[in-house]
Amino acid sequence: MKINLETIQILKNDLSDELLNHYSLCDLLAVDCEMMGLSPVRDRLCLVQLCDKDEKAALVKIEQGAKSPNLKKLFENIKVKKIFHFGRTDLTFLYYWQQIDLVNVFCTKSASKLVRTYTDKHSLKDLLKELLSTDIDKSNQLTDWGAPELTKDQIKYAAGDVLYLIPAYHKLIELLKRENRLEVAEECNKFLPTLAKLDLLGYVDFFAH
Ligand code: MG
Fold first, then answer.
1. Could you tell me the CA-to-CA distances from 16 to 52, 100, 132, 160, 197 in Å, in that order?
2. Which one, of 164, 167, 106, 98, lies nearest residue 136 by Cα?
3. DSSP-derived 3-state class of residue 35
4. How far does the centroid of ligand 1 lie from the alpha carbon of residue 209, in Å?
5. Mean per-residue pLDDT over the chain, rounded
6. Residue 5 pLDDT more than 90?
7. For the stretch 66-105, what's the b/e string if a residue is b when 16 or more beta carbons lie within 10 angstroms of its beta carbon?
8. Distance 158 CA to ligand 1 centre (A)
9. Ion ligand 1 residue ranges (Cβ < 5 Å)
């Protein structure tokens, strides 16, 4: 795994203006979040990871109660396509903790489900192994992301979750085109912010009878 710790920028509570300007000019941006747990109202958002196509990665560590206006500006910028893996969770936490109403998103997990119907393995690890022959280390997934200082292993893990998302996105777009499912994927992605809001309202299966 080619992660160079020296090149990863670590910021407190928000993006710098310089990074906001840089990422705002990107067509594609990989994004992931780490939280204290999986319950959006109970568990706070701890870390937001970003990476562009040139592997310029930044980790924004968010303290209890802090707001991130530059992240909000970037994520609400319709010109930048934000790529997540299972964006449903990230969007829910970003909406609840930062009041960020994301637009122009792409979820690699739902795209994978639309085209890789020969398998039920749609985790990021499985997806990257197949599409990019890359094996990412998920051993730090269940660690304390709210601790005041991140460990080196946490930094590597957090950056690893965004470093390969843009290359995976390109592969998935090819597959979606090949299988004539690009349009339905786009419709799913458009609905994702609404799904996050329905989750927060407590609906389990909104369209069920
Ligand atoms: Mg992650």
1. 15, 17, 31, 21, 28
2. 164
3. strand
4. 34
5. 96
6. no
7. eebebbbbbbebeebbbbbbbbbbbbbbbbbbbebebebb
8. 6
9. 32, 161
Residue 60 has pLDDT above 70, yes or no: yes
**Separation CA 205–CA 137 (nearest Å):** 33
Q: How far does residue 113's CA lie from ligand 1's centre (Å)? A: 19
pTM confidence score? 0.96
- Domains in the chain (CATH in brackets) are 7-200 (3.30.420.10)
Q: To 10 degrees, the CA torsion angle through 32, 16, 28, 163?
A: -50
Residue with tokens 């930048």: 80
pLDDT above 70 coverage of the chain, percent: 99
| Sign of the dihedral through C-alpha 86, 89, 90, 91 | positive
pLDDT tens per residue, range 194-208:
999 999 999 999 999
Statement: residue 132 has pLDDT above 80: yes
